[in-house]
Amino acid sequence: MRFSVFGLFAGLLSCTIGAAAAGDSASFKTLRLEGNGVRWQVAAKGQQRVLSYAIVAQDVEFAGARNCGKMTKLDTLLSTSQIAPETARAEIAAAFAMWEAVANIGFREAADPATADILIGAQLEPEGWAFANVFYDTLSTEPVKPISRALICLNPEKRWKVGFNGDLRTYDMRYTITHEIGHTIGLDHPSGGGQIMGYRYEETFRSLQPGDVSGVVLLYGKRQPDSIIVASEPASQARHASSVRLYAKRWGARAFTARSP
After folding, report:
1. Is residue 195 packed enough to be buried (19+ CB in 10 Å), middle (13-18) or exposed (0-12)?
2. 228 forms bridges with which residues in the sheet?
3. For the whole model, what pTM was predicted?
């Protein structure tokens, strides 16, 4: 497989026809990787695409990945930070639920991590705070390339917490996971602040902000409560769909590049 570095997105994506549109926004920005807009394949009208996610259950490796190349279970991270596994699972579910509540994209926990569209784990080679990797179909003829799999990894050597307490040196797990999910579904860091997708870790809000909502709605449309649920193709099948097709392009980003003073 061939890997290359991403390019920052300079425009917006049309959620109706999937074509790139000129413009940018200080409150949100969508990903553009090597000149390509990316997002998970959008379901047909009246349907909702549902992605699966899972917490890593054993050591896994993704050869050539810039970030999250080697991940393991969250056990040590949670033990060090004194967070119960069931609490962490609830916080992760709550993070996914925030995006699902506003856009026409759903999430469910996969029984088998091997089939999950989005994998969450701890870094085996600790660095920074948190990262995301996005893989997409390089040979797709779609104007916006479909994402095929995504990874989220947290540094087990950092202290993590549940909730805000004013200590900006210890990151809230839900806030960080919500930020990283945004990357895995096609959002970049906006040029302005005040959003969960912003560069800075903040403790002034713990829910999606207007720019976050505008960005994800642009990509997937508004939430349609009565939509028919359509599950995505399991990642294990997508990776072997064809020996010719490449799911090699990947993108990696730090969760936050700076802390609020």
Report:
1. buried
2. 47
3. 0.83
